[in-house]
Design brief:
The chain has 155 residues and is mostly helical. Helices cover 55% and strands 10% of the residues. Helix 1 packs across helix 3, helix 4 runs antiparallel to helix 7 and helix 5 runs antiparallel to helix 6. The radius of gyration is 18 Å and the shape is elongated. It starts with a helix and ends in a 6-residue tail after the last helix.
């Protein structure tokens, strides 16, 4: 039947296919009990098989009332644009390049003027004054912003 990670992945994908919302919410401990495994094995599957590159975002809150939310990203023309932009961003992006990207997203009516202003404030040199490797941090932020824009459950 395959290894444990394969079974967990298959199970989660089946549940995602059955939902109309485009996301599922569950508890890590319940899932670990169901598969008779440690919660760290659930984390491994989420970290390796439910990544942005694979078309998912995983939100997590640990603790007694904690949960996992697995969100399937939309496959649309914008998703293709998002993938292209992620490749162009690479491992780091300068403030000037990031501001250009935000402006383009605003010109394409993907972002409102207000959303663009908020993103520009977050990625500015001033907001990252004490952060080492600002261009790497900025690249990570921009990639996450693009992934968030592809989420179905925000519409």
């Amino acid at each position: 039947m395959g290894n444990l990670a394969d079974r967990i992945e298959k199970y989660l994908k089946q549940i995602l296919e059955q939902t109309e919302e485009g996301y599922i919410t569950l508890q890590r401990s319940v899932l670990a009990d169901e598969f008779s495994c440690a919660p760290s094995q659930i984390n491994y599957v989420l970290d390796t098989r439910f990544t942005v590159e694979h078309g998912y975002i995983v939100e997590s809150r640990r603790g007694g009332g904690g949960y996992l939310r697995i969100i399937r990203l939309v496959v649309s023309p914008f998703a293709q644009f998002q993938m292209t932009m992620r490749q162009l961003i690479g491992e780091q992006i300068s403030q000037k390049q990031a501001l250009g990207l935000v402006t383009r997203l605003m010109d394409e009516k993907i972002l409102t003027v207000r959303e663009a202003a908020i993103i520009k404030a977050v990625i500015s040199r001033l907001s990252m004054a004490n952060i080492p490797e600002q261009d790497k941090v900025r690249a990570g932020l921009m990639k996450y912003i693009l992934a968030t824009l592809c989420r179905e459950d925000l519409e």
